[in-house]
C-alpha cells in the first residue's frame, strides 16, 4: 500500500514540477494528464496509448517503418553488430548475479499504465466492488513490450523506479515481458506480431533487444526481471508440423539466443517461457522440452542470469489443483506444480538447474474450460493467488501476475482481421474487443470471482 501511495504521490507531483515544456522521455499527454503537453526541442510528443504520450527524441519517433537505430540518448552497448551470428557478438558479461532468489529483498515496481487502466475501470463501478477493483492497481503485474515503439517507456519506468528507490530506500524490481519475435505466434490462427522473418525480422528484433538492453544499462541500480517470449519455444516442441513454426524455428532460436546473451550482459534476470502443464506437461513432451530449454540455456552462455523458466503465462491453470479438472484427464501432470516437479529433474540432468515463476493472475476459479487448450477470455475466470515468494516449493521463486487482468486476449468479431476461433468458442466471454485492449466486463468478473478475494 505504501508503495502505491508513493506512486500516487509521484504522479501527483509531476504536473507541479513540469513547466511549459516536458523533457525528453517525460510524459506529455494521455487520459488524466494535466502536465505539459509540449516537448523540449529535439523531441516530439508521441502517443503510446490512450493513457500515455511521451516526449521521444525526434530521431526515435516511430514512423510507419520500424526504427532501425537505437534512440540517440541511449548509449549503444554493442560494438560488433552482426545479423548472422549472435554467438560472436555477445558482449562479455560484467554483471554478476546475486545468489539465490532474485525476488528476495525486493518490492515490485507497479506499472503506471496498468494502474491507470485499473483506475479508469474502477471509476465505472460502485460500492465495495469498486474499492476492490481500485486496489488491483496495488498488485504487481508484468509490463509487456510487444512492440518496439513501446521500448522507450522502459526508460521512463526505470527512471521512476530509480527515483522511488532513492526516496524510500526500498529496492525495486521491474518485471517485463520480452515479446516481439518475428513471425510471432507461429501456431496461432491469427498472429499479431509486428515483425516478419521475410521483411528483415531478425535485424529488427536485434534492434528491439538492443534498445531494451541500452535502457537497462542506464539504470544499473534497478533490478529487472524478464520473461522471454511467451509460447515461442513451446511451439517449437509441439507445433513443428505447422508450416509457419517449422519455417520460424531457426530464427526463433537465433533471436532468443541473442536476447539471452544481450540481456544477461546487462544483468537482467530471465525466465524463458515454458508453456504450461496442458502443453509441455504431457509425459511425451517433457523430455523434448527439457532438451530444447537446456540447449537455449547453453546457447545463451549458461549465464546465471538465465534463472529458469516461466509457466502458465496468460493461462488459467492452478498451481496446485484440489482435484484434477476433468479436461486434464490422461495427463498425470494436471497442475503447474506437478509439471514443474516433473520437468526440473530432466533439466538438471542436462546441466540446467532451472528455477521457476508461475503465473496465477487468472487462475482463481478452476474447471471453467471445455478443452485444456482454450485460452481466450475464458468465461468465469477470477484473479488468483497474488504475487509472492512464499510458494511452498523450493523450485518456484515466485508466484507472479504476468497477464494484465482485464486486457482482452483477442476479439470475438468474426469479421476482424485478427479474429481467432478460440475467441468465439462457447467458453470464451463475448463480445470481446481486440487483443490487448480493455475488456471492462471481463475485468469486473475477475474481481468478483477472485480467489482469494481482492482486499477492498
Ligand atoms: C500446437 O500444439 C498443441 C499441443 O500439442 C496442440 O494442442 C495444438 O493443436 C497445436 N497447434 C496447432 C495449430 O497445430
Ligand atoms: C467487426 O469487424 C468489422 C471489420 O473490421 C467491422 O467493420 C465491424 O464494425 C466490427 N463489428 C463490431 C461489432 O465491432
Strand content: 5-15%
Helix/strand order, N-terminal first: HEEEEEHEHHEHEHEHHEHEHEEH
Poorly predicted runs of 5 or more residues? 1-19, 60-92
Q: What's the end-to-end separation, in Å?
A: 12 Å
Arithmetic mean of pLDDT: 87
| Alpha plus pi helix count | 11
The number of strands is 13
What overall form do the CA principal axes indicate? globular
Helix share, percent: 25-40%
| Major β-sheet profile | 8 strands, parallel
Coarse structural class: alpha/beta
Bound molecules: 2-acetamido-2-deoxy-beta-D-glucopyranose
CA-atom Rg in angstroms: 21 Å
Question: Which key features would you list for this structure?
Answer:
13% strand, disordered N terminus, globular, glycosidase, binds 2-acetamido-2-deoxy-beta-D-glucopyranose, 32% helix, eight-stranded parallel beta sheet, 11 helices, 456 residues, alpha/beta, three-stranded antiparallel beta sheet
Can you describe this structure?
Helix 5 runs parallel beside helix 6 and helix 6 runs parallel beside helix 8. The N terminus is likely disordered. The strands form three sheets. Strands 6, 7, 8, 9, 10, 11, 12 and 13 form an eight-stranded parallel beta sheet that branches. A three-stranded antiparallel beta sheet has the order 2-5-4, with no helix packed on it. Strands 1-3 form a two-stranded parallel sheet. The termini are close together. The protein is of the alpha/beta class and 456 residues long. Helix 9 links the parallel strand 10 and strand 11. The site of one 2-acetamido-2-deoxy-beta-D-glucopyranose has 3 residues, from loops.
